[in-house]
Amino acid sequence: PLTFTGTPSELQKLFLDKRFTDFLPVILPTEELVNEMLKGTSHRPDEVLGKMNPGSEAGEAWTYTVKDAAINAVMAGAKPEYFPVILAIGSTGMTAVNVSDNGFMAGAVINGNIRDEIGLNYEIGAVGPYAHANTTIGRAWHLLSINGGNCGKVGTTYMGTVGNPTNLIGVIIAENERDSPYPPLSVRRGFKPGENVVTLFIGWGILSAKNWRANVWGPNMNYPQIIKDIYNTQDSMFGTFVVLSPPVANFVKDAGFDTIEK
What DSSP designation does 209 have? Predict the structure, then answer.
């Protein structure tokens, strides 16, 4: 049904029992809050936003609307000003959680002026859960995958032998365009500086260079070689996505790699 009635605690239990959530408490999507979220876009609530499938033959693809996305954005605790980013992600039909027996993770790189407009974090704690925008955008993507895309049902549309807790909020990266020695990812993809762009990716998981066997820890780090060695050990199916802090990116540039192509 379109509506449920009950006390807040009864509704939280209902959402758990019905598997509408990621098993964490949610903001209950009241009509008032959903309408407030919809103010973050000019798209009609009944407009079809996308179609999603958990992968292979695991389950049928579900179609979802802008309003469906708003409901899940409210549940995730997002603000209306984050909604354009959530819509951009949802419009691609890419899931935040995969059906595979491998614990895949998904992520997004966000470029453009919207990073500062909505308070995305790209400094200390970047790529972590320590900013409201980063965390709730990633969680909204996960909840939309569950409720809009038939994903994440353990034993049917989710078969991860060893799961991945990163699925909960994904990896939401707002690029630090100001301090990077290289052009932003979006510009390298052909977009204009300042243009709001979301780039999605999927992979096996996350490796830290510090703890990787290719690394030789010492006072003079050869960061370009470490990156090469890590890359050369990875499965060719997905390649490697490298995330560098500004100081390390500048070390790489000063070592002679003054362009991304190099």
Answer: G
Nearest-angstrom CA–CA distance, 73 and 29? 9
3-state secondary structure at position 152: coil
Collapse the DSSP code of 219 into the 3-class scheme (helix H, G, I; strand E, B; otherwise coil) and give the result: coil
- How many alpha carbons lie under 13 Å from residue 128 in its C-beta half-sphere? 5
The model carries a pTM of 0.93
pLDDT tens, residue by residue, 153-200: 888 888 888 888 888 999 999 999 999 999 999 999 999 999 999 999
Is residue 138 within 8 Å of 171, Cβ to Cβ?
yes
CA atoms within 13 A of residue 207's CA, in its CB half-sphere = 19
Token representation of residue 238: 């997905």
Q: Tokens standing for 178?
A: 């100001």
Strands (E) located in the chain: 48-52, 62-65, 105-111, 171-174, 197-203
Query: Which tokens belong to 177?
Result: 């365009």
